[in-house]
Design brief:
By secondary structure, this protein is α/β, with parallel strands linked by helices. It has 2 domains: about 1-170 and about 335-375, Response regulator (Rossmann fold), CATH 3.40.50.2300; about 185-330, Response regulator (Rossmann fold), CATH 3.40.50. It has helices at about 5-20, 80-95, 105-120, 135-145, 170-185, 205-220, 230-235, 245-255, 260-275, 290-300, 315-325, 335-350, 385-390; strands at about 70, 100, 125, 150, 165-170, 190-195, 225, 280-285, 305-310, 330-335, 360-365, 370-375, 375-380. The strands form 3 sheets. Strands 2-1-3-4-5-12-11 form a 7-stranded mixed β-sheet, with helices on both faces. The chain has a 4-stranded parallel β-sheet with strand order 7-6-8-9, sandwiched between helices. Helix 2 packs across helix 12 and helix 9 packs parallel to helix 10 (about 290-300). The longest helix is centred in the N-terminal third of the chain and has 20 residues, at about 5-20. The chain binds beta-D-galactopyranose. Beta-D-galactopyranose binds near residues 77, 154, 198 and 258.
Length: about 400
């Protein structure tokens, strides 16, 4: 490996350490970039030090323009624009050549993106899979080209070709969502509980649900809560632990596909089908912010729903405003500064021939993938300022009604 590349990597490592260790002065704003361009056109690539980019590659047709390739799922969800901003800040500042590509909800586009990056001569691929199992083929192609593969936020399953995984503590996300509903439930028993989940193609959706179920199940089993919208969950209410297949059955009924429109139409259908006993003061397990806002808007317009508590995650600006306004009960702050910095630090270590720091493993069905895990923060009206403004993740001017 050339000296110049090594010194750049060290610079990145320093930036990553700064970001991880003492917080960043980078203020993230989710930009309004539209997703109407094809993914490749949206790519950003620094052209500095292109001659060094492919150092260490063994042959092939690599053009050597890009050192680190990043593939993210979609621009249509603000969550991933947060991650994009962090990557560009860290890698760009360090003079690291990089390219960020979006898959726009398509595994085929994702595969093409990975192939594009391979042809650019990347040394490291950081990828957040569109579909956990479909992404296996893409990362196997990268691995065959000698590239180190880091799964980002979402684990890729059924393949040996994942070297490392950087993730938030997704089980804790689900636990926090479930526990919020328990702690803020109305008094009494027989309280209607509406369950919603993420996409069945996303490994995280299973972990989130598993975490939520771990705390909600005893309350369902003892009759405090009554499931309003899933016969599969109802049938499993006495099982403290669910197999992946069982969770899959529940997700099959209550998935939002991480899609605002699917979430909206499911919520409408559920409330149309619900009898009077499933209305009144209700609880809603909203899997993430985008879907929670859709579901909350539907529940807010049903005159027989007297009150509802609904969870979310991602601290998207629109949901932070909903929390401030009392329209969404909570969100979960997943500090993308840390996740991006961790994955870059991991890439730096690999390229320097070191073993990256990991603190746990995640099984992807064929191997235990060494992983670095980051904690999450529950955000409610009470701590929104402290968690998101004082930490300089957002600027107060992005919101109204903050004290
Ligand atoms: C998950 C991710 C969440 C949420 C969701 C929908 O994998 O962990 O933060 O964004 O996808 O994109």
């Amino acid at each position: 490996m050339k000296k110049k590349l090594l010194s750049m990597l060290l610079a990145v490592a320093m930036v990553a350490t700064m970001l991880t260790g003492c917080g960043s002065d980078t203020t993230t704003t989710t930009d309004d970039t539209t997703a109407d361009d094809v993914a490749a056109d949206d790519a950003t690539a620094d052209d500095a030090t292109a001659d060094d980019a492919a150092a260490g590659d063994e042959g092939g047709a690599a053009s050597g323009d890009v050192q680190v390739g990043i593939v993210l799922p979609t621009k249509d969800e603000p969550r991933w624009l947060q991650d994009q901003a962090q990557f560009e800040a860290i890698l760009g500042d360090a003079g690291f050549t990089n390219q960020v590509l979006f898959s726009q909800g398509s595994s085929a586009t994702e595969k093409t993106n990975v192939e594009t990056l391979i042809s650019q001569g990347i040394d490291v691929l950081i990828i957040c899979a569109q579909d956990a199992s479909a992404a296996a083929a893409a990362v196997e192609a990268a691995k065959d080209a000698g590239i180190t593969v880091i799964a980002y936020d979402r684990l890729i399953t059924g393949t040996e070709a994942v070297d490392y995984y950087v993730t938030f503590d997704s089980f804790s996300v689900g636990v926090a969502q479930g526990q919020y509903l328990i702690d803020n439930a109305p008094d009494g028993t027989g309280i209607p509980l509406y369950l919603y989940a993420g996409a069945a193609t996303d490994n995280n959706a299973f972990i989130f649900f598993e975490g939520a179920w771990s705390v909600l199940q005893p309350k369902i089993a003892d009759g405090t809560f009554v499931i309003a919208n899933s016969s599969e969950a109802e049938a499993l209410k006495d099982s403290a632990e669910l197999s992946r297949e069982e969770i899959g059955k529940i997700i099959g009924q209550v998935t939002t596909d991480w899609d605002f429109n699917v979430a909206k139409s499911k919520a409408e259908a559920h409330l149309t089908a619900a009898g009077a006993d499933m209305k009144g003061d209700v609880l809603v397990l909203g899997p993430n912010d985008g879907t929670a806002r859709s579901i909350a808007d539907v529940f807010a317009t049903d005159k027989d729903v007297t009150s509802f508590k609904i969870t979310g995650q991602d601290a998207e600006t629109a949901s932070v405003q909903y929390v401030i306004d009392g329209k969404q009960s909570m969100t979960i702050f997943k500090d993308t500064r840390t996740l991006a910095a961790d994955s870059v630090a991991m890439a730096v270590a690999v390229l320097n021939g070191e073993t990256p720091a990991t603190d746990t493993t995640y099984n992807n069905e064929v191997k235990d993938v060494p992983a670095k895990q980051t904690d999450i923060v529950v955000v409610t009206q009470d701590n929104v300022k402290e968690a998101l403004i004082d930490s300089e993740y957002y600027d107060a001017s992005e919101f109204t009604g903050l004290e």
